[in-house]
Amino acid sequence: MCIRDRDRVLKEREDFNRVAGKVIRITTSEPIKGSTLTVGRLINVQDDLIRLELSDGTAADVNYEKILKATLDIEFKK
């Protein structure tokens, strides 16, 4: 991943499809588990929402209309 990709804002559904399986960072208009800034692995892209796997192992569904900003996050290999 190059820096240019990390800074690219995900806007369209195609953008989310392109990074499926990768870790993304989203800012939402409503809190997810108490925070409007969420980082998780994008595990599913549907018509009106995305599903993230959060660091605690749970999943969160987020409507596209609630996403204010989304970017690819840096993922370090173990």
Any idea what the radius of gyration is? 12 Å
Order of helices and strands: HHEEEEE
Helix content: 10-25%
Beta-strand residue percentage: over 45%
Total number of β-strand segments? Answer: 5
**Spans of at least 5 consecutive residues with low confidence:** none
Question: What is the number of helices?
Answer: 2
End-to-end distance: 16 Å
Strand order of the largest sheet: 4-3-2-1-5
Tertiary shape: globular
Q: Main sheet, how many strands, which sense, barrel?
A: 5 strands, antiparallel
Structural class: mainly beta
Mean pLDDT: 90
Describe this structure in words.
The protein is mostly beta strands. It has helices at about 5, 15-20; strands spanning about 25-30, 35-45, 50-55, 60-65, 65-70. Strands 4-3-2-1-5 form a five-stranded antiparallel sheet. Strand 1 (about 25-30) and strand 2 form a beta hairpin. The mean pLDDT is about 90.
